[in-house]
Amino acid sequence: xxxxxxxxxxxxxxxxxxxxxxxxxARVCEARxxxxxxxxxxxxxxxxxxxxxxxxxxxxLIEKLYSDKTAIIMLHRVTTTINYSCASPLSGLEISAAxxxxxxxxxxxxxxKFISMDNLCDNFEKCLKKHLIxxxxxxxxxxxxxxxxxxxxxxxxxxxxxxxxxxxxxxKLWWYALYELAQNNSKVCFDMGGRNLFFEKxxxxxxxxxxxxRDFYLSLNKAEEEIIYRQILExxxxxxxxxxxxxxWRDVIELANDNLCxxxxxxxxxxxxxxxxxxxxxxxxxxxxxxxxxxxxxxxNHFSYPYGTNDSVNNxxxxxxxxxxxxxxxxxxxxxxxxxxxxAMHSLPRIGLNNYNYSKDRMNYLLNGVVIIKQRLLRKCVLxxxxxx
Length: 389
What we know:
The chain is of the alpha/beta class. It has helices at about 1-10, 15-30, 35-55, 60-65, 95-110, 115-120, 140-155, 175-185, 205-220, 220-235, 240-245, 250-255, 280-295, 315-325, 360-365, 370-375, 380-389; strands at about 70-75, 75-80, 95, 115, 130-140, 160, 185-190, 195-200, 260-265, 300-305, 330, 350. The protein has 17 helices and twelve strands. The longest helix is centred in the first third of the chain and has 20 residues, at about 35-55. It is globular. Strand 4, helix 6 and strand 5 (about 130-140) form a beta-alpha-beta unit. It has three domains: about 1-65; about 70-170 and about 240-365, Glycoside hydrolase/deacetylase (TIM Barrel); about 175-235, no CATH class. Helix 5 (about 95-110) runs parallel beside helix 7 (about 140-155).
């Protein structure tokens, strides 16, 4: 290990040159049509840079500067079993009850304090070290039946961002239907009003094929999405039991009546806001907010952007969310909460929690800022990889 550290310390100043070399090699492979070799080279470039950081002196410096940070934790589902493998793109949507409880106990034992979104707003400067805020998106039934008893047991405040179409029982759980489509088909054809669009799996794994289809789905406007979703349902026969899978309004009211729970807004139909007109955005955000407020008879102060990435959120949408009266809004960019966030309360980052990163060592790795520094160092490399794909 000492010898490896010496080598990495020697290579660290040259990591940019190393990355450039591997990216050039990847472009050569692309020209030859060797797509998968290109992907492996780009990933190796990332791993090499991370290895250089981890086993050099900069590692200890990062840990000192970025340890014990405050973070907003992002959840979706809390289940009784583990339903997806680590490789599945849907694995990030769930964590088992046992793993969630272990995560809470580990954090409490290390001196972390769990607070609400309101507490973060009202005492921002005092909450920048060793505080965690639990949030859950969408409105799944297990938030009440599985997660809520755990939060109650340990007196953990939490926020549930409600998509109105969930308790209205008219939601489109397209991400599950689309994954089923990707698993069971080598070729997919969508009819776009007389124009056929073909997607072929070829040598892609199910996960990569799903991501390809997902990117296409997220580019659709509201009318196109309705057409494509119906075709996906016809092809897969996907028919979830919404009564068992998602919250109804009585469930939402039950959660809202407990001081531990904060109800937030998550649009009316969980759509990509960047594909909508201003009038449609007003309906999806403001009108949905008012509906939830009328149902639970409480003011809604917090918002979560559907998907929460640069492809679904821009500055114009952020300004509209401010105008609609929200105190905070959260995205899905992975980062901790720092002083700069006081000027960006409507684009607060979160760290996702699932069955594959809940462990003490992995979460320490996420919370001490090392992953964030790695992301910043590798931003150009990652962007280049996306362009090549």
